[in-house]
Structure formats: C-alpha cells, structure tokens
C-alpha cells in the first residue's frame, strides 16, 4: 500500500497562530482527506459551492487539528514538519 506523506507546519512556526491548525481540501480529494484524518485532523464542515471551475462547482472540506492534539500527530510516521 502506498502511503502519502503530509507536510504541515510546526506549531511553533510563525505560520501557525492560536490553538488550532486548519486545512481546506476539495471534497473530491479523498486521498488528502484520508491522510489528514490519519494524523488526527477532524472534519469540521463543508463550504458548499466554494469554487467554480468551468461548468463544475466544487465544495471545500474544512478540517482542523487542535494544539493539544499535536503530540499524537508528531508521533506519526507520515508527518514531515516544516517551518
């Protein structure tokens, strides 16, 4: 089985503020959604009809990982921390 690696900023990075790290993923990108869920991100909702591309309209899934959940993600072997 091929495992994709997820690159996310360190919580100590200036790119990450507050108590959470949010990502937005197009709803048809099931591989990315699965990868984020494997490291602890939780779906918070869907922004319907967010982007129009040609005749298609795409939805966006909003996911988050809380600062207190970060240690579990850091122990994962599929996370590359950047920043």
From TrEMBL:
Source organism superkingdom: Bacteria
InterPro entries on file: Acyl_CoA_acyltransferase (IPR016181)
Name the record gives this protein: N-acetyltransferase domain-containing protein
The species this protein was found in: Phyllobacterium brassicacearum
């Amino acid at each position: 089985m091929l495992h994709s690696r997820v690159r996310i900023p360190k919580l100590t990075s200036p790119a990450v503020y507050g108590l959470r790290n949010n990502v937005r993923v197009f709803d048809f990108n099931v591989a990315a959604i699965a990868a984020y869920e494997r490291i602890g991100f939780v779906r918070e909702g869907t922004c319907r009809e967010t982007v129009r591309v040609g005749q298609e309209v795409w939805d966006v899934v909003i996911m988050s990982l809380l600062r207190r959940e970060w240690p579990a993600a850091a122990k994962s072997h599929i996370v590359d921390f950047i920043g």
